[in-house]
Amino acid sequence: EGLRGDTLIDVGCGPTIYQLLSACEHFQEVIASDYADQNRRELEKWLKNEAGAFDWRPVVKYVCELEGDREKWAEKEEKLRKKVRQVLKCDVTKANPVDPVSLPPADCVLSTLCLEAACKDPATFRSTLRNVGALVKPGGHLVMVTVLRETYYAFNKQVFSCLRLERNEVEEAVEGAGFDVKFSEVQPYLPGDVRTDCEAVLSLVARRRASLT
After folding, report:
1. Which GO terms describe its cellular component (predicted)?
2. Does the model's pTM come out above 0.90?
């Protein structure tokens, strides 16, 4: 609510669109980016409405219901397809995560369930936040969803490592990257999911300072 502008960059979009369904109502263009070639390919299949693309309709309908009109799902799909202008490779450990592309600073950068999976230690996490934060214009916003106290997650019998983070570590890294935290909320993750040892999920919105001093 209240976040809007011309450009939103999604850093670490994965093969998913759920995180963009509400965002596309508030920004004129969306730039999606991910490290994995297969994730970008899967996203492009959906954007181009290709045969075999994942069916996101149940999720789109649910988001439309949350926004007040479940029947607008087809309109929302069409709007999102039009607004995603680029799908780029990104590496958050680089000073310019979308190198060799050079993007003008965006009104908003969105990152969901990405940085904690891409970083091996707290120092790397702090530096990647500075890298990602540099994509945001002064006065613009960073929107993050991060898992807390997770060391692994499993998918399709593959186990991936995750950097174990506490809320204060995330907030301090965001502030160290030149932002003021405006909203921060922790929701517990229900125990008993054998696919992960995640204990909570942190949602955070931060505003980039006009200067880094």
Report:
1. cytosol
2. yes
